[in-house]
Amino acid sequence: MASLTLDQIRLAPKVLLHDHLDGGLRPATVVELADECGYTALPTTDVTKLGGWFRGGAHSGSLVRYLETFSHTVAVMQTPEALARVARECAEDLAADGIVYAEIRFAPELHTENGLSLDAIVEAVLDGLRAGSEGTGLHARVLCTAMRHQARSLEIAELAVRWRDQGVVGFDIAGAEAGNPPTRHLDAFQYLQRANGHFTIHAGEAFGLPSIWEAVQWCNADRLGHGVRIVDDISVDVEGQASLGPLANYVRDTRVPLEMCPSSNVHTGAARSIATHPIGLLRDLRFRVTVNTDNRLMSDVTLSSEFATLVETFGYGWSDIRWFTLNAMKSAFLPFDQRLDLIDDVIKPGFDALAASAPGA
């Protein structure tokens, strides 16, 4: 049977849970916004070369080097107009890729250099997402991210709760994991729990099992951003039989969603290659795995291209992409009835139609 093509996958109704707003700008937009705000530190103003520069920095195999590329995107996102434009174009690009639900995360504290308030920043992003989603079938929501090496996580958690009825559905912490454990932010996570809020935690990407253990057992994360290193608690014998350690068993048993970003994980050194990425094993073991983009600019990916890469590498078909998609929709921070509506009215019928139209169906 012929494998699925990128164009076919683009038609599927997909769900994206892990996508950074400041990691998904169009190169041309970076150049134009830099010119508008007088930012002169770009490595080049040639759009094609700039896109290549971002990819080169991201593909270094180092999470720290990967994160350095964000200094330029964040620098041109310091006004309400720039934030709204970037958010609008993000929604347009995701809708064009066949995504029907997306949670876009960004760190409001990184956009205050011109004196904008945190509330004004969130408002501008929500306005942009609404404008870009209108008439497309995309339902876009926001996660407010706090930087794990800073001390504003409680303030950002309160911001997320303040805006949760207007498009913000959760909270996240991000940034370099080593030396910045999630337990540094327990007050924020405890506040969110008391406020009945949802949150995900970047864990198990560049750091190992202790990061995941703290996120799950100390902080009670609803989801794990990446979670790649959970594989360190799984052993596979020469016959291919897997044995799960206590943490891996717990994560699987309790259906903790893993927001995996295969290409990004290779680029940051969290995985050696797509072929050896833990996603293949974790899918076989029926963990709650989801597929995501992380940073579309830096990794030069779309959600459809990520699925196409998995199809090529692991031989996946429509049933696998549907499985990943349903996992993501079930794990979204959208209210239950809205999740169910998208599953029953959009996702399942969409995949059924694609499978029925496949050769030999």
UniProtKB/TrEMBL annotation:
Zn(2+) binds at H18, H20, H202, D294. The record marks H226 as: Important for catalytic activity. The keyword Zinc applies. It catalyses: 2'-deoxyadenosine + H2O + H(+) = 2'-deoxyinosine + NH4(+); adenosine + H2O + H(+) = inosine + NH4(+). The keyword Zinc applies. NCBIfam families: aden_deam, PRK09358.1-2. This is Adenosine deaminase. It comes from Pseudofrankia inefficax (strain DSM 45817 / CECT 9037 / DDB 130130 / EuI1c) (Frankia inefficax). The lineage of its organism: Bacteria, Bacillati, Actinomycetota, Actinomycetes, Frankiales. The gene is add.
